[in-house]
Amino acid sequence: MIALPVIQPAEAQTKTRKPDWLRVKLPVGKEYAKVRQLVDTYKLHTICESGNCPNMGECWGAGTATFMILGNVCTRSCSFCAVATGRPNEYDLDEPRRVAEAIQLMGVKHAVITSVNRDELKDRGASIWHETIVQIKKLSPQTTIETLIPDVKANWEALEVMISAGQEVVSHNVETVKSLYRQVRPQAKYDRSLEQIRRIKEYGKRTKTGIMLGLGETKDEVYEAMDNLAANGLDILTLGQYLQPTKMHLEVAEFIHPDLFAHYREEGLRRGLKYVESGPLVRSSYHAERHVHV
Predict the structure, then answer these.
(1) Which residues make up the binding site for [4Fe-4S] cluster 1 (predicted)?
(2) Where in the chain are the domains?
C-alpha cells in the first residue's frame, strides 16, 4: 500500500513557488533550433507554444512537436487553457500539405496532430482533419499518427470523417472529473465526451484521453473517472499536474505529489486501462510514441 503524502491547503500552495518536481529545462540545442525553423518557415501552429507546454524544450530537443491545425483561435473558452479564444478567421485549405511536408522534413517516426475547437464550422473542421492525415501518410507512409481531436458536439458524421483517414491513435481529452466540468469546461459535457470516446473505440481505433489534476478533484472522483473511461473503451490515460497559464485562468488548487501520481497509475491499470502515463509534467502528447502499440 502506497503511503500518500500530506498535501498542504490549496490557499497556502498558490501563494508559494512551485515544488521542485515541477522544474523544467529551458529549450535549447540543435534539434530545438531545427524544429523552431521548420515551424516558422511553414507558418504552422503548435500546441506546444499555444498551450505553454512545460515539455516543449524536451520534445522539440528530441525533434518532435505537436502540430495544431485549423488556426490558433478557439471557439471555446475553457478556464484552464492558454489558447486564444474568439471568432476564428483562419481556414487554410493548403494547411494539410504544409503540415505533411514539415513532418517529412523532420523525419519523425510518430506525429501528433491536434486542433482548436471550430464550433462555427458545420463539419467542425473534419475535412481539414481528414486531408491532413491523408497528406502525412502520402509523404511519410511509415510515420504513425496520433490525432488529439476536439469535442464535435455530437456531430457523429464529422467524427467519422476525422478518424477515418488512417491514424493509429485517436485521443479526446476529458480534461477533468465530472463535478468540475461547469467550472473547467463550461461549453462541454462530461457524458458527451465519454460517448465520443466510446464511438471512437467502436470504430476500431486505439483510444486515449487526458486528465489534469490539482483543480480540486478528490481521489474518489479520479477513481470514478477511471471507471467511466474504462467502461467506455478507453485504452490509454494520461494524468498530469494542472498549471495556471495566466492570472486570468483558474488557480491551482493543489500541487499533486509524484507519489500520488504513481498511485493513480497503479489504480488505473487495476481498473482495466491498458496504459497509464502519470506524472506532474505529463501532458497529452508526452511520450506519445509509446502509445501506438500498447
Answers:
(1) 48, 53, 59, 285
(2) 29-290
Task: Tell me how long the chain is.
Answer: 294
Burial degree of 86 (CB within 10 A; 0-12, 13-18, 19+): exposed
CATH topology of domain 29-290: TIM Barrel (3.20.20)
How far CA 40 is from CA of 30, 74, 216, 290, in Å, comes to 16, 21, 38, 28
Determine phi and psi for 166, rounding to 5 degrees. Answer: 110, 5
* Binding site as annotated, residues for [4Fe-4S] cluster: 48, 53, 59, 74, 78, 81, 285
Q: Which amino acids are annotated as binding site, given as ranges?
A: 48, 53, 59, 74, 78, 81, 285
Q: Give per-residue pLDDT as tens, 6-17.
A: 444 444 444 446
Strand partners for 109? none
Global pTM reads: 0.84
**233-269 as b/e: b if 16+ CB within 10 A:** ebbbbbbbbbbeeeeeebebbbbbbbebbebbbebbe
Give the confidence band of 22 by pLDDT, cuts at 50, 70, 90.
confident
CA 278, CA 74: separation in Å to the nearest integer?
Answer: 27
